[in-house]
From TrEMBL:
Family per record: Belongs to the nitroreductase family.
Ranges of residues in domain Nitroreductase: 187-240, 255-331
Keyword annotations from UniProtKB, A to Z: Oxidoreductase
Listed name of the protein: Nitroreductase domain-containing protein
InterPro entries: Nitroreductase (IPR029479), Nitroreductase-like (IPR000415)
Length: 353
């Protein structure tokens, strides 16, 4: 039976290749025409390609989950984080307006009232929102709206030390790293594929994650999570879902799956922010790992439906959660080789306009 199946596959393989070649040839003729119109491009991806189906479903599921999160509060509130950040931007404006945030301050205090006493909500989030709102009401002009909002705030506010508010640039911690030292860190950060058979202490992974959380994020929503796999069977399975790990997957001892969540956004316009913010955090994580004598290798995550389904099921991801990338992590094998990977010079990257 196996021999028969093998022969059938051998017979079908050139037919499949011929069909795919014909399909690609037809696409290359059609695409230049339809790419000139948003409407025609949408028709093409409706009837001739399913490549964006998962993203469409994820974006819509994210909008539903966002609405649900306004009532069912977890350990973070995307709305409270966004509006608190917006208030901070208003507080630092030069000159600061006597009245600002009039279009969203009521929404903010209503959200604060709804979430602030919830046990699940992060204490850090509670303090940040409380301190910034308190600062806002101390400086904003008193009128019917602000007095009403302040009353709501005072009725439910928690007590903190008012430390987590905007501050001057001169108050930043002293910088002890110069450009050349920083460049050394950048040059040392290489994509390592060969690791020692040695456990990575969890406290080091937590330290690197602490560094990652300091990466910039649009409206400080931080719409991502790092899933840390340490079991060798799980690591190998998850890493195998990606493309590009063949031949060295057995060397990976720890794996981070960076996952973005579209639950943080009520509109389609922000659908790409999970990739931007997640990548910024991932880069800081990898640089932090190098400072802890750990090596990393970012692994590209392809948008291939079969692989997406496997990872979704394996990790138990929600429909609005998207894998962004994988990061292999461990102690580097000193004898393991790394690619030279010549980078583009700055005069190619930097363009004056």
């Amino acid at each position: 039976m196996e021999k028969i199946l093998g022969r059938v596959k051998s017979t079908l393989r050139p037919i499949k290749r011929a069909f795919e070649s014909s399909k690609e040839s037809l696409e290359l003729r059609v695409i230049p025409f339809v790419s000139k119109s948003g409407f025609l491009s949408s028709l093409y991806y409706t009837f001739f390609s399913t490549q964006f189906y998962r993203e469409h479903c994820a974006v819509l599921s994210g909008r539903v989950a966002y609405k649900r999160s306004l009532v069912e509060v977890g350990d973070t509130s995307a709305l409270l984080r966004r509006n608190t950040h917006r208030l901070e931007k208003g507080l630092i404006m030069r000159p600061r307006r006597s009245m600002f945030a009039s279009d969203y301050i009521l929404e903010t205090v209503n959200c604060y009232q709804n979430v602030i006493k919830r046990e699940a909500l992060s204490l850090d989030e509670k303090q940040w929102a409380t301190d910034v709102l308190n600062q806002y009401f101390e400086v904003v002009e008193e009128n019917t709206l602000t007095l009403e909002c302040r009353k709501i705030f005072e009725q439910c506010r928690l007590k903190f030390n008012d430390d987590w508010i905007p501050y001057e640039y001169s108050e930043l911690v002293t910088k002890e790293v110069g450009f050349e030292q920083l460049m050394t860190v950048f040059r040392r950060r290489r994509s390592v594929r060969w690791f020692l058979d040695k456990d990575v202490p969890k406290d080091l992974v937590l330290k690197a994650t602490d560094a990652a959380t300091l990466a910039p994020s649009a409206c400080n929503r931080q719409p991502f999570k790092f899933i840390h796999l340490t079991d060798s069977t799980k690591v190998k399975k998850a890493a195998s879902f990606a493309m590009g790990t063949a031949g060295w997957v057995d060397s990976i001892k720890n794996l981070i799956v960076v996952v973005g969540t579209l639950e943080a956004y009520p509109k389609e316009r922000d659908r790409h922010v999970i990739y931007i913010d997640g990548s910024l955090a991932a880069m800081q994580f990898m640089l932090a790992c190098d400072s802890l004598d750990l090596a990393t290798c970012p692994i590209n995550w392809p948008d291939v439906e079969q692989r997406e389904r496997k990872m979704e099921k394996f990790l138990g991801l929600e429909s609005y959660e998207r894998p962004i990338m994988l990061i292999a992590l461990g102690y580097p094998d000193p004898k393991g080789q790394i690619p030279f990977s010549a980078k583009k010079p700055s005069n190619i990257i930097l363009k004056e306009n």
